[in-house]
Design brief:
Low-confidence stretches: 1-31, 169-173, 309-320
Strand order of the largest sheet: 6-5-4-3-2-1-13-12-11-10-9-8-7
Number of strands: 13
Distance between the termini: 45 Å
Radius of gyration: 20 Å
Shape: globular
Number of helices: 6
Structural class: alpha+beta
Largest sheet: 13 strands, antiparallel
Order of helices and strands: HHEEEEEEHHHEEEEEEEH
Helix content: 10-25%
Length: 320
């Protein structure tokens, strides 16, 4: 389930959890005070995601991905861009950079702009300034849309998704509501010695059992700061994904500033590590920001927006 705000209307997520608490609690008894607090913090978290996506925002994510298999390591530079302007145009970009086998450095990008009327413009290739633009109307055939690999990026909601989702660029802002509302049940919740809340969620899909643990950090407005996903094999828990997230306050919001995650394949043959930094602009600072599909490089307004920070220009990373 996801929530969509109508102009002038605020989704009543707290009411939803008040109604559904007993349906979500795994035990048959009354939920205690901690369970009630958890649902309140979940409601606040989902509302924060919706607020981000209902206003102009721009988030640039950059860092490194390391794939490990049979002691071989593949290092890639990772870029994610998620922006929305005041005209409700949305820009999502997913980029990778890596050293070539003969030296040098190469990047590959996939980008998508969704206009306020639902029309899609899409680009992909090695050089963002020389990419061909493909256009799809809102009612384009499903198979054409399916060919577009860029998916919506939710810099806040993706925190509780498995680490591989953000790495592959396939997570979206419905992930949080699916994990916490659609498929999962709250199995336990308790305060730790620091005042944070440790919660455990269970879900079953196609006769497979999964467990997710989420630590809601007291010092960062009870945002999810440590998230683990397990696959249940017999009586054993097999760790699939572990994410740790740091936050900083941007205006009145706590937003991610650093993301460290690892994803394990079942059986443990492969590992995917990510260390990412987040840069944000929200609301008032975006009054002049505009997403323009006619530009030779769709990233240009983003580079201009962040030029006064320590965030580096795209394409400057090397394998050294």
């Amino acid at each position: 389930m996801s929530f969509h705000r109508v102009a002038g209307e605020q989704p009543d997520l707290q009411q939803h959890f008040t109604i559904s608490n007993r349906a979500c609690v795994a035990n048959d008894g009354e939920e205690d005070g901690t369970d009630g607090v958890v649902f309140e913090k979940v409601a606040d978290f989902l509302l924060a995601i919706e607020e981000i996506h209902s206003c102009p925002f721009c988030c640039v994510i950059s860092g490194e991905s390391r794939g490990i298999r049979n002691d071989a390591i593949l290092r890639r530079r990772v870029y994610r861009i998620a922006c929305q302007d005041s005209k409700r145009r949305r820009l999502d970009c997913s980029g990778y950079g890596a050293a070539g086998s003969r030296g040098g450095y190469a990047e590959r990008w996939e980008m998508r702009i969704i206009d306020s009327d639902g029309a899609i413009a899409y680009r992909s290739g090695m050089d963002p300034r020389r990419m061909k633009t493909l256009h799809f109307e809102k009612d384009a055939k499903a198979e054409k849309k399916k060919a577009i690999q860029v998916k919506p990026i939710s810099p806040l909601g993706d925190i509780i998704a498995p680490s591989a989702s953000l790495n592959d660029g396939i997570a979206n802002h419905q992930t949080a509501s699916r994990v916490l509302m659609g498929l999962a049940k709250l199995a336990s919740a308790k305060f730790d010695e620091n005042g944070s809340i440790q919660s455990e969620w269970t879900k079953t899909s196609d006769n497979l059992e999964f467990v997710t643990t989420i630590l809601w950090g007291e010092t960062t407005g009870f945002m999810p700061s440590d998230v683990k996903h397990y696959f249940i094999r017999g009586n054993q828990r097999e760790l699939v994904s572990h994410v740790k997230c740091e936050y900083k306050k941007v205006g009145t919001r706590w937003l991610p500033s650093r993301y460290v995650g690892v994803h394990f394949s079942l059986g443990g043959d492969n590992e995917q590590h990510m260390d990412l930094a987040f840069q944000w602009r929200c609301r008032e600072s975006l009054e002049q920001f505009s997403i323009d599909p006619s530009l030779p490089d769709w990233r240009t307004p983003v580079e201009e927006l962040f030029e006064d920070t320590d965030w580096k220009k795209f394409g400057t990373w090397s394998s050294n």
